[in-house]
C-alpha cells in the first residue's frame, strides 16, 4: 500500500505506508494532524467516502477514527462530521495557569527556550552566505536520508570533541530537532516498549505514546536520576533518558546508574535513547560526557541546536548503532528532514568555530543567571533551588504548605508566567510542590525583572498571611 490516494469531496491526501491497513491509516492521520495539514477543527471525510477512496473496508476507517477520537486527536458526535480536535497537537510547552486578574505576560520563566535575543545573527548570516556560495547545485536537491555529509562530518568532529560521543559521519542522522529524532528512533525500534522517566517533557511522551503509538512504561526518578535498576521489572526494550541533566529535576544520572543501564542494555538487548538536550551547559565542573561512548551499539544519542542556537531552526541529530542505520531511508520516506541550506550553514558554523564561540558566550551568561537566581531564592524562607548547576532550568522547591497552582496564579497577577513541576509529571506522579524555572528564557534586559517578580511572589506565599503585597 504505497500509493498516495486522494479522497473525493473533501480533499484529503493520505499516504498509507506499511502493512496493517488500520495502523497505516491511523499513522497517516496523526502525521497529517501533527504536520498541520489537518488543522484543528478541520472536517474529515465520512467513513464511507474515505474507505471508498482508499480502497479499504469501511470498518477499517470506523475503527481508525474511533481510536484517534479516544486518543484525543479527533472528535466525533453522533449525527455530525468527525473533526480534528481543537487541541489535537500542541507543540509548545504547557501553558501556565493564569489566575483571575492576571496581568498581561511581561515576564516569562518557563523552561524550553534559550535566550532567543542572543541568537548569533551575524555569524549565522555569514555562515549561510558562505554555505550558499560554496554549495554545488547537487547540494540543493533533496537532502540524503541521513542528512548532508558536510554537516554529518562537522557534527562527528564536534560531538567527539565536545561531548565525548563515539560518532562517525556514517552513523549520524540529521533531523528536525530532538522531537523528530525521537520520532525516528521510535519508528526504527518498531513496537518496542519504551520506558519514560516519571518526569519529562510532555511533548516527548506524546511522540512516544500517541504519535508513534509505542507502548510505554514509567521509570521513577530520584536524586540520582532515573531509577534504572527498575528497568528489569518492566517490559521495556528501550528507555528514554536525560542522563547529563534530568529534565526537569536537574540531577545527573548517578555514575553507578550509568553503568547499570548499560549493563541492562547489553544483557537485555535493550536500547537507551540519550536525550543530551543541554549537555553543553554545565557550570560547576567539566561537563559529564555522553553515555553513548560507553556502549555505542546500545545507545541512540540525540542532540539538538534548540538550546545552543534556537528551537526555530529545527536542527537536531542522532548518532545510531550500526544495526539501525540501514532502516533510516524507509523512515525518511515518510518524514522529511531539515532544509539543505540550514544544514550547510550549521556545518559552516561548526567548522569555522562560530558555534563553539557562541556556546562559550552563552555558557558564561547562563552561569551568571543561574548564580543570580540561586542567590535571590536563598533569601526566601522555605524556598530552595535543587539540581546541579547546569542547563537552562532550575527546580525551586516551594515554601511548605504552598501549592504550585497558587504560586503560578500569584505570579501571573504580577505579569510573570511560570510552570509547576506537575506539568511535567507522568501519570500524575506524586511530588513535593516545585517550580521549574527556565532562567535562560527572558532576554537579558528582562531577566532581573523576572527574578524580582519570582522572589516577590515566593515571599508573598511564604508570609504567614500569604496575601499579595506591594512589590514588583
Ligand atoms: C528535555 C528536552 N529535550 C529536548 C529538547 C529539545 O527539543 P527540540 O530539539 O525538538 O526543540 C527540549 C526542549 O525544550 C527538552 O526540554
Question: Can you walk me through this structure?
Answer:
It is a single chain. The protein is of the alpha/beta class. Helix content is 37%, strand content 14%. It is built from 14 helices and 19 strands. Strands 6-14-13-12-11-7-8 form a seven-stranded mixed sheet, with helices on both faces. Strand 1 and strand 2 form a beta hairpin. Helix 4 packs across helix 11 and helix 5 packs across helix 11. The longest helix has 25 residues. The protein is globular. The N terminus is likely disordered. Bound molecules: pyridoxal-5'-phosphate (PLP).
- The portion of residues assigned to helices is 25-40%
**What small molecules does the structure contain?**
pyridoxal-5'-phosphate
Low-confidence stretches: 1-8, 90-98
Tell me the number of strands: 19
Lay out the secondary structure.
Layout: E1 4-6, E2 13-15, H1 21-34, H2 47-54, H3 58-70, E3 74-75, E4 83-84, E5 107-108, H4 121-134, H5 149-163, E6 172-175, H6 177-189, E7 194-197, H7 202-211, E8 216-219, E9 221-222, E10 225-226, E11 238-241, H8 255-268, E12 271-275, E13 299-304, E14 316-319, H9 322-325, H10 328-332, H11 340-351, H12 354-378, E15 384-386, E16 393-397, H13 404-412, E17 416-417, E18 419-420, E19 434-438, H14 444-462
Parallel strand pairs: 5-17, 7-8, 7-11, 11-12, 12-13
Antiparallel strand pairs: 1-2, 3-4, 6-14, 9-10, 13-14, 15-16, 16-19, 18-19
Residues 112, 177-179, 201, 242, 247, 275, 277, 304, 306, 311, 316 line the site of pyridoxal-5'-phosphate.
Amino acid at each position: 500500500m504505497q500509493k498516495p490516494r486522494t479522497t473525493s469531496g473533501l480533499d484529503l491526501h493520505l499516504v498509507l505506508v506499511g502493512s496493517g491497513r488500520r495502523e497505516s491509516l491511523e499513522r497517516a492521520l496523526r502525521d497529517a494532524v501533527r504536520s498541520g495539514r489537518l488543522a484543528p477543527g478541520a472536517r474529515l471525510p465520512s467513513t464511507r467516502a474515505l474507505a471508498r477512496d482508499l480502497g479499504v473496508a469501511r470498518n477499517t476507517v470506523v475503527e481508525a477514527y474511533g481510536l484517534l477520537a479516544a486518543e484525543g486527536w479527533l472528535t466525533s458526535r453522533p449525527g455530525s462530521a468527525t473533526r480534528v480536535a481543537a487541541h489535537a497537537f500542541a507543540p509548545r510547552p504547557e501553558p501556565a495557569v493564569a489566575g483571575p486578574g492576571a496581568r498581561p505576560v511581561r515576564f516569562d520563566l518557563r523552561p524550553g527556550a534559550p535566550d532567543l535575543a542572543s541568537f548569533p545573527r551575524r555569524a549565522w548570516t555569514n555562515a549561510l552566505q558562505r554555505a550558499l556560495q560554496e554549495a554545488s547545485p547537487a547540494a540543493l536537491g533533496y537532502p540524503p536520508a541521513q542528512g548532508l555529509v558536510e554537516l554529518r562530518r562537522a557534527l562527528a568532529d564536534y560531538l567527539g570533541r565536545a561531548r565525548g560521543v563515539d560518532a562517525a559521519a556514517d552513523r549520524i542522522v540529521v533531523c528536525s530537532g530532538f522531537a523528530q529524532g525521537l520520532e525516528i528512533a521510535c519508528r526504527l525500534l518498531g513496537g518496542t516498549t519504551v520506558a519514560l522517566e516519571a518526569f519529562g517533557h510532555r511533548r516527548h511522551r506524546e511522540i512516544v505514546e500517541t504519535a508513534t503509538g509505542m507502548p510505554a512504561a514509567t521509570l521513577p526518578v530520584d536524586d540520582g536520576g532515573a531509577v534504572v535498576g527498575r528497568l528489569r521489572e518492566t517490559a521495556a526494550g528501550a528507555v528514554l533518558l536525560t542522563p547529563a541533566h534530568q529534565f526537569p529535576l536537574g540531577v545527573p544520572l548517578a555514575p553507578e546508574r550509568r553503568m547499570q543501564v548499560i549493563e541492562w542494555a547489553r544483557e537485555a538487548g535493550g536500547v537507551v535513547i540519550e536525550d543530551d538536550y543541554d549537555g553543553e551547559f554545565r557550570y560547576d565542573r567539566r561537563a559529564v560526557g555522553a553515555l553513548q561512548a560507553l556502549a555505542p551499539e546500545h545507545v541512540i544519542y540525540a542532540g539538538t541546536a534548540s538550546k545552543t542556537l534556537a528551537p526555530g531552526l529545527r536542527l537536531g541529530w542522532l548518532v545510531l548503532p550500526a544495526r539501525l542505520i540501514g532502516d533510516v531511508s524507509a523512515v525518511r520516506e515518510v518524514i522529511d528532514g531539515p532544509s539543505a541550506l540550514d544544514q550547510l550553514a550549521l556545518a559552516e558554523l561548526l567548522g569555522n568555530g562560530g558555534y563553539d564561540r557562541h556556546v562559550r558566550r552563552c555558557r558564561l551568561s547562563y552561569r551568571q543567571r543561574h548564580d543570580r537566581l540561586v542567590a535571590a531564592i536563598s533569601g526566601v524562607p522555605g524556598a530552595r533551588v535543587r539540581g546541579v548547576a547546569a542547563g537552562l532550568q532550575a527546580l525551586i522547591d516551594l515554601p511548605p504548605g504552598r501549592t504550585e497552582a497558587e504560586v503560578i496564579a500569584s505570579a501571573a497577577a504580577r505579569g510573570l508566567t511560570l510552570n509547576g513541576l506537575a506539568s511535567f509529571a507522568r501519570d500524575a506522579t506524586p511530588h513535593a510542590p516545585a517550580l521549574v524555572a527556565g532562567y535562560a528564557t527572558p532576554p537579558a534586559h528582562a531577566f532581573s525583572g523576572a527574578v524580582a517578580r519570582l522572589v516577590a511572589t515566593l515571599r508573598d506565599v511564604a508570609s504567614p498571611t500569604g496575601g499579595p503585597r506591594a512589590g514588583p
